[in-house]
Amino acid sequence: MPNKPVSSAKFNEVVNSPKRSSRRVRRVILSLLAVILLGVIIFLLVPSPIEPTKWITPAGPSFKEPGPWQQNDKLSSPQLVTDAPKSPEFITFDKEGKLYTGDSDGKIYKVGFDADGNPQEAQVFADTKGTPNGLKFDANGNLIVTDVKRGLLSINPSGSIEVLADQVDGKPIYLANELDIAQDGSIYFSDTSNYGRVTFKEMAENKPHGRLLKYDPMTKQTTVLLEGLYFANGVALSADEDFVLVAESYHYQLTRYWLKGSKKGTTDIFAKNLAGFPDNITRDEQGHFWVGIFTTRISFVDQMHRSPWLAGTMAKVPELLLSGASAPAKHGLVAELSPQGELVESWHDPEGSLYGVTTAVNHNGYLYIGTAPGGSEGVHRLLLPK
């Protein structure tokens, strides 16, 4: 049977069909581009939630040049002490040598050691129902805790919790972070930010919102020693208790507040231009200060501080989309400082098996390492050279 001839109209329809499809695709693409462009214009026109302050950040120390910041592998191949706490922000020890650390879910763990120094299984000591960060035992055997959500707490040996302070001068303690305890029982602790939480907006804004506080156990009163700190973090007293240090994470420095002598009540910079964001500070028997560096310097952040427009624009981006920007670099770092604030040496893990370091504690021949959410998990330790 012969093929039925195709009409001229049908032929044109078949030939022109791909052209019409191509035009439809182009229209869709152009429409999408118009929507995206409109979204960008609206995003740029919306006012920023912050008014950033310009800061020309100093160039950070180089890990490649010879000197105490030179990269090494001293933090590599650590021994796992316990993985019960995923984010052991701070580490302390009781008089019997048991290790205590908190986790972001509110639990505080204790870890004993056998006769050979091997860690035993972790046990839950208490649950603050908050977020315990700083921990230190007082002279009476109570565990004093700075809890991000609940303030300054005291936990007796049986695990009973008492709130010591959650206000100062009639205002909330917004974000109790770290602490140290003087021989007279006075508790020095940081109130990180009146934002009440860790937020990228505060970093972008580059304005000081933190405080250093003091709690007097005799009067049960809390006072403000210092205001205007750039993300107040770790706290540590000197061996003679003539000054107290507080880390200003967002300005890469440690600030010293004098407690005694002719400089009493004044401040100065103890250590500046650190190679990253300083977190917690501990002091060893030699009077040296060990500083956990949560993350090494982030070039984009330094660039953002130089451009208030860029900082203000970034503050408009939803926090969920910026989670990667605040994640720690996978480079473990700890700084050891002399009693005068000079860098003695740095400890690195450039491979990033141990990173997001918040705490380094020199105890009984080992360096114990704690971390925060976003970093490696569990408590680790490394044998110190004799």
UniProtKB/TrEMBL annotation:
Transmembrane ranges?
Answer: 28-46
Indicate, by first and last residue, each region the UniProt record lists as having compositional bias (Polar residues). 69-80
Q: Which keywords does this chain's UniProt record carry?
A: Glycoprotein, Membrane, Phosphoprotein, Transmembrane, Transmembrane helix
Classify the source by domain of life: Bacteria
One of this protein's Pfam families, by short name?
A: Str_synth
**Which stretches make up the Strictosidine synthase conserved region domain?**
177-261
Q: Where is this region: Disordered?
A: 57-82
Annotated family:
Belongs to the strictosidine synthase family.
This chain's protein is named SMP-30/gluconolactonase/LRE family protein
Q: Which organism is it from?
A: Cohnella silvisoli
